[in-house]
Amino acid sequence: MKKTLKIGGNILFYLISGLLLISILLELFAPDKTIDIIGFKGFVVVSRSMEPVINVNDIVIVTKANESSLEPGDIISFYAYLPTIHEDDEGNIIYEKNVVTHYLGELITDGENTIIKTYGTANNEGEYDQWNDAYGNPTDLTTGDVLGKVSLTIPKVGFVILFAMILVQNPVFLALILTNIVILIILIKVIRKPKDKRL
Length: 199
Known about the structure:
The protein is of the alpha+beta class and 199 residues long. It contains 4 helices and 9 strands. The chain has 3 domains: 1-34; 39-154, Ribbon (Umud Fragment, subunit A); 158-185. The protein has helices at 2-29, 34-38, 158-169, 171-192; strands spanning 40-44, 59-64, 75-87, 93-110, 113-119, 131-132, 138-139, 141-142, 146-154.
């Protein structure tokens, strides 16, 4: 019985480890395809627009969802252009494509497209978000912008992921961290090394 449990535990461990490794590799080499390939993706929440339901530094696990499965009241993650603090040469605010997690308020069929209306927890009742395109012009989002539904929220561990992303994106910083760890290990071994006992 114990042997069977141990084998089962090992299989589960390797399956989870393999899935995490695949997820990490996809994030490094094909971040836009992760949710399509493995069916889910985690995002770190960096704004307060959904507090207290979802807080800053929470991780939301988003699972792929078909248009037919979307319903008002779902918490969804989607692509939207958000203003940055940067301006172009003509003084216009630069917009960047980001992932946003908000409530789905309404689905509106418009010809071949289905427009989505979204809202955060700070919105008044019946008030929907106003979104812009890459040039700052008002636009509607459609179901094509939706990544999926939030199926799980893991509180307060997002800073670990953000720190790991900084390490991956900055090899010099990663090298410095690893060098410091190696130096610490060497120092600990030297300090704890037993002295030769002489008779």
